[in-house]
Amino acid sequence: MPLIQDSHDSLPYIDPDISLQTRSEAEALVTKELSDKHTGTPHPLLPQLRSHSFSPCIAAELERVSAQQPLKAIDTSRYEALEPPTMTDPTSDETRPQLPEAWTTTLQKAYASSTHLHTRLQNLALLERFGKNAWLVGNSQLEEILKGIEKDLVETREQVEQVGQTRQYTQEGVKGEMESLDDGWRKGVGRLMEVQVASEHVKSQILEKRRQGAV
């Protein structure tokens, strides 16, 4: 349902264009009626905005964006080349117990890096085998979508032009009648003004004669 229900009559093919002075005067009157907060105050007929309840993840992401902090979604350090820790010796488990834990962590990262590289090689092989055809099929689908949109655009433009032509022909067909009615209305208003002026003149004469008779 549209917010504005008023119907504004417009006859662009009959009515003459207004002057710049008249337009500026009308805009000044409209601006005078507007409040100081009209640009930031929502229209009273607009529905109330729904309250948003974001998840903690989305809320944290919105805070990051508002703070203009860089995105750290994926830690790529696990895929980088690893430096082996210090070599162990027969007595390192007793003298340096942190070395086995360091080697375990390094081996886990190396396994993750190896798995990543293996998956990457598989994806590259699949891309080399099927990527070209998939790309061509995707382009063909996009071309079909584009053709459909262009067809709808052409049909919509034709409908707009047809409506405009019909509107122009209709207004030009009644232009003579409208001008005749407008001229008759102006003449009628002029005669009415003349009658009112004459009536006021007669009233003033009657009152003057009454005053003279009373004297």
Explain the overall architecture.
The chain has 215 residues and is mainly α. It is built from 5 helices and no strands. It is 67% helix and 0% strand. The two termini are 71 Å apart. The model has no long low-confidence stretch (mean pLDDT 83).
Q: What keywords describe this structure?
A:
215 residues
Topology:
Blueprint: H1 20-33, H2 56-66, H3 92-95, H4 98-173, H5 175-214
State mean pLDDT (0 to 100 scale): 83
Which outline best applies? Answer: elongated
- Percent of residues in helices: 55-70%
- Topology as a string of helices (H) and strands (E): HHHHH
Question: How far apart are the first and last residues' alpha carbons, in Å?
Answer: 71 Å
β-strand percent reads: under 5%
Number of strands: 0
Largest sheet: none
Q: Quick summary of this structure?
A:
This protein has helices at residues 20-33, 56-66, 92-95, 98-173, 175-214. The protein is an all-alpha fold.
